[in-house]
Write a structure and sequence with these properties.
Pfam family, one: Muted
Protein name: Biogenesis of lysosome-related organelles complex 1 subunit 5
Helix content: 40-55%
Number of strands: 0
InterPro entries: Bloc1s5
Family: Belongs to the BLOC1S5 family.
Oligomer: single chain
C-alpha cells in the first residue's frame, strides 16, 4: 500500500475481456457481503493509515520550532 493509487475492491474485479460489465462474485451491490467488505475497508484505512496523524504531528513540530526560533 503506497497510497495515492486506486485499487479495485475484492469481489468487484473487472472482466478480463475488457467489457463494461463487472464481475461481482458476492452478489448484488446491496448484499450483506458487500457491506461487510466496505466496512472492512473503512476499518483498515482508519487503523493502518497513519498519514493524518503524522501530518498533524509534523505541523505541530514546525509551529513549535518556528515559535522558539522567533523567540531567540
Amino acid at each position: 500500500m503506497s497510497g495515492g493509487g486506486t485499487e479495485t475492491p475484492v469481489g468487484c474485479e473487472a472482466t478480463p475481456g475488457g467489457g463494461d460489465k463487472k464481475k461481482d462474485s458476492l452478489g448484488t451491490a446491496g448484499s450483506p457481503a458487500h457491506f461487510i467488505i466496505k466496512d472492512l475497508g473503512e476499518i483498515h484505512s482508519r487503523l493502518l493509515n497513519h498519514r493524518p496523524v503524522v501530518q498533524g504531528e509534523t505541523r505541530y513540530f514546525v509551529k513549535e520550532f518556528e515559535e522558539k526560533r522567533d523567540a531567540l
